[in-house]
């Protein structure tokens, strides 16, 4: 079932959509007093990264360690380097997750990969309500394996 909506909607109440079951979850969070400047890369790392780490440790069951390996700030102006993607896609595959652990945490890779680990994306609205190119989610259980088309980004 696909719902087409002009505004945010869901076929289930917000608290029934979970990361473990649906592969996404929505949290309403209160911004910190030190709102990060998303135009300053170092400020993003020093102010926003700790907020994301705290959010994941508090909200994701079983999370006990967080390593943030990068961030993307979507820009919509013409010629933007990291513009929104206009097609359905999966950001990480199981194979890429293994590669990332080995690349970013080589000393911990063997131990980390023998335990439970996950790559989690965190999105937030930076300014006002998004009216153009909004982020859209699909529950993992709503997509059949045979409907997934593999591609490789280079």
UniProtKB/TrEMBL annotation:
GO molecular function term, any single one = oxidoreductase activity
> What family is reported?
Belongs to the asaB hydroxylase/desaturase family.
**Name this protein carries in UniProt:** TauD/TfdA-like domain-containing protein
In which organism is this protein found? Paracoccidioides brasiliensis
């Amino acid at each position: 079932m696909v719902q087409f909506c002009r505004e945010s909607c869901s076929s289930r109440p917000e608290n029934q959509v979970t990361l473990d079951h649906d592969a996404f979850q929505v949290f309403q969070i209160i911004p910190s007093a030190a709102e990060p400047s998303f135009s300053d890369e170092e400020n993003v790392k020093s102010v926003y990264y700790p907020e994301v780490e705290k959010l994941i440790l508090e909200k994701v069951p079983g999370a006990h360690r967080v390593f943030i390996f990068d961030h993307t700030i979507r820009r919509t102006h013409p010629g933007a380097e990291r513009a929104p993607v206009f097609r359905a896609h999966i950001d990480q595959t199981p194979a890429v997750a293994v590669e990332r652990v080995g690349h970013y945490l080589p000393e911990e890779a063997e131990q980390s990969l023998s335990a439970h680990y996950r790559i989690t994306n965190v999105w937030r609205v930076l300014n006002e309500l998004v009216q153009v190119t909004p982020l859209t989610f699909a529950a993992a259980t709503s997509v059949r394996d045979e409907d997934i088309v593999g591609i490789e980004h280079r």
